[in-house]
Amino acid sequence: MAATTVAVPPAEMPLPHEYRGRVGMWCLIAAESAIFSIFVVAYLYYAGKSLGGPTPREVLHVPYFNSICLFSSSFTIVMAERAIARGKTKLFGIWWLLTIALGTIFILGTAREWYHLIYNDGLTISSSLFGTTFYSLVGLHAFHVIVGLIGLSLIMIFTALGYVEQEHVPKIEVFAMYWHFVDAVWVVVLTVVYFIAL
Amino acid sequence: MSNAESVLRPMPVSAAREDAKPFFDQVHEWIVTVDHKKLGLMYILYGILFLVIAGLEATVMRIQLAIPHNHFVSPQVFNQLFTMHGTTMVFLVGMPLLFGFANYLAPLMIGARDMAFPRLNAFSFWMSALGGIILYFSFLGGPGLYGAGSAPDVGWFAYAPLTSQAFSPGHSTDYWIIGLLVSGVGSIGTALNIVTTVLCMRCPGMTLGRMPLFAWLNLVMSAMVLIVISPLTAAQIMLLLDRYLGAHFFDTQAGGSAVIWMHFFWIFGHPEVYVLIIPGFAIASEIIPVFSRKPIFGYSIMVAATVAIGFVSLGVWAHHMFTIGMTSYANAFFVASTMAVGVPTGIKIFNWLGTMWGGKIRLTIPMLFCIGFLFQFLIAGLTGIMLAAAPFDWQLGNSYFVVAHFHYVLIGGLVFTIFAALYYWYPKVTGRMWNETLGKWHFWLFLIGFHLTFDFMHIPGVLGMPRRIYTYEPGRGWELWNMIVSIGVIFQIVGILFWVVNVVWSYLKGKPAGNDPWDAWTLEWATSSPPPEYNFAKIPVVRSRRPLWDLKHPEDPDWKYE
Predict the structure, then answer these.
(1) Across the A/B interface, how many CB contacts are shorter than 8 Å?
(2) What are B335-365's pLDDT values in tens digits?
(3) N or C end of chain B, less CB within 10 A?
(4) What is the DSSP string of B143-159?
(5) Closest residue by Cα to residue B201 from A16, A9, A188, A184
(6) What is the pTM of this model?
(7) A171 vs B contacts (CB less than 8 Å)
(8) Which of A14, A15, A125 sits opposite B246 (nearest CB)?
């Protein structure tokens, strides 16, 4: 380029490729949030409009223990991330297993709650609007916890087989974002179902 | 600069076409591909296939409505036709075509070798394809082809309580729900992929302020898809729970609300219109500057207006619901927000006009389609403003005036830009030039057909003809207009036949196009036609909004002024 007389400015670097996992997960979280928003809106809109059946005040008990377990799992997964970032695979496995255990306790707690609601209180998805919106919103969240548990378990199996190394930190971080999101949604669901719309 | 020049030097046209390989190997290659260009083409072909199908459905409807007291099809089939026509055009034609263009072009324009997640890309395409197959399997399911099977007949917005088990027994509505749920998963996957690609896969120097508007607008469109498709998915899950588990979301007898389905649907449904038209804007924003020989007028305003449309369009949905009787506060809010969304849209029209103003306009086929788009989209916007006024809407809501309005947006606006894009990038994709004469026939016939059909469709609407009626009495003054509207369809079909002939003939016999037939400025014209699998031998480096201008005019590069 002989004709160039002006110094060519350096090219700025845009967002690096390594961020794509996180950006992708943020997109998924945005889409999931929109789905949850609609179910939350439906829950609030129909609160107190049931034509019969047990009311939330009669049958719902705030699941303190369950919630503490789920919220703590966000802490244990952060500890697991830190361990793998420093290359401590064994420590990573322990924290990861603890996360799975806490998530499992949560889901078993939900199962127990539902069992009581269905067989003792007679609240089903078709019994009243409260049942419809309660089971669909809490169930949608539980479904996400189960998907998260399947993912956590897969990574646990790979860890046990010795495939997970320090170089996988970015992928584990992306997965942990999903788990944090599931926890954050529980903050909203818990507040709406057990505190606001009683 | 010498570095950039060697990067952007056109590569030799890949001479070896793929027809050397055995047929089944080629098919296998397309099925397992994760290449963004092949997936983009499959999206486009898929969209065109369904465009033909949905077009034929519309044709049958227009035959039915051409004269009063007609019995060309049964009322039941007519209901299925308008349901399938609308659903198909939105989900199986509009979205796949636009995702196809974004898939094919966005990585090329930002100097990337592929999308951010190539395998997710393939997964999303096949999910969308599966959704379409499920929806159309409904014609074969149930009682089979006889009597058009059990195709959905609840309208494309499937209002409650018509969709409940009591009023919609059998599986016709389930095909609608499941088909759209599945293709929705594909849409979310592709939207996520486009956002990530545009943000993370840009080549050095491709800052946000230098991205081609095509990439910018598709970024906004995809971000909208993420939060717009989800409400529909959520509402459809609720509908499935209602139909199969006895839930009461939309069951008015148990205290549920039919109106809340309308809200949920239109929270999806109205932003969806902008999801469809923004890529149309993206196409116009690439083509108009190149054929006006001027850079786009008001680049940053264009981006800002698009982002504004993205936000404001999320708050206008209930203008579809003025006639259900909302409070006057809700009416006032949605009138105001709907009129407000017209402002950034108007800004865009002035930007395109400003680009053409004083330019050396070349009236090629893509440019002709873009000018048609400008003119028609303006009228579509004006009837939109009319319908945004609640009292006007009380009079004309649910009439053929509304049908004419949104077909003006989606055909006069969107389909015209899609044809512009199909002509503009055809040389890049095939390496061949199309025939100018056949293209002119296509444009003029389609333009005449469009105006015959959709200009005159406003009139029976004003005269009180409701949409979705199966037939009508003579003597209401609707006959002439309906006949003209139906005659317009013939012109449109013949016009599109010219396009089909042009595509096939040019693919086989067209002149070689070269890498840059339009003397354009964006990066896709820097590589060969068709581009190699890796797009760029060396990742390009850009320093302005028009990297190819810089390359062709080293003595006067754009980056000196930006």
Answers:
(1) 142
(2) 999 999 999 999 999 999 999 999 999 999 9
(3) C
(4) T-TGGGTT---STTTT-
(5) A16
(6) 0.93
(7) none
(8) A125
